[in-house]
Write a structure and sequence with these properties.
Layout: E1 11-15, H1 19-22, E2 23-33, H2 37-44, E3 48-49, E4 54-58, E5 61-65, E6 68-69, E7 85-88, H3 91-102, E8 107-115, E9 121-130, H4 133-155
Antiparallel strand pairs: 1-8, 2-7, 2-9, 3-6, 4-5, 5-7, 8-9
Length: about 160
């Protein structure tokens, strides 16, 4: 008997595609985010952007800085579009991220914001190191060669 497809509420809200090009990703982590009601309503409409945002450890807390969530026009009490939003993470992970940013010179980059299976807004952030221009060129050359190799294998030339 065939399995029924699982009903999932997983929905990507916004993705930072440029992050994997500009940074060498070391590790990633799923974190929660504290939002107001009008922000969640706006996200359900799909109006957000995390491309130019970053995460920072300040005063023992993790914050998402410069992320954009469009205002919800039917909200009685609106929200500020680019406010700092607190991220929820365990103390152990927070200490690890603080070490990575302060001691090792890494950056906390948001990769993707999404609704998980339970309908909660989650954010995947990564500890990353900035790439130099020659690293970016090498990555691009490797990706182009992979594409060309797949094309040759498919067509058999």
């Amino acid at each position: 008997m065939a399995k029924k497809p699982e009903k999932t509420n997983y929905k990507v809200l916004s993705e930072n595609r440029r992050a994997r090009y500009d940074y060498a990703i070391e590790s990633d982590l799923e974190v929660g985010i504290i939002l107001t009601g009008s922000e969640v309503k706006s996200l359900r409409g799909g109006q957000s952007n995390i491309a130019e945002s970053y995460a920072a450890v300040e005063e023992g807390e993790l914050w998402l800085v410069n992320s954009y969530i469009a205002p919800y026009d039917r909200a009685m009490f609106g929200h500020e579009e680019r406010r700092r939003r607190k991220l929820l993470v365990s103390k152990k992970e927070l200490a690890r991220m603080w070490n990575a940013t302060k001691r090792e010179g890494m950056t906390l980059v948001p990769l993707v914001m999404y609704f998980n299976d339970r309908g909660l807004v989650k954010l995947k952030i990564a500890t990353a190191k900035g790439k130099k221009n020659h690293d970016k060129r090498a990555t691009e050359a490797k990706r182009d060669w992979g594409r060309q190799k797949q094309r040759l294998l498919r067509h058999g030339d």
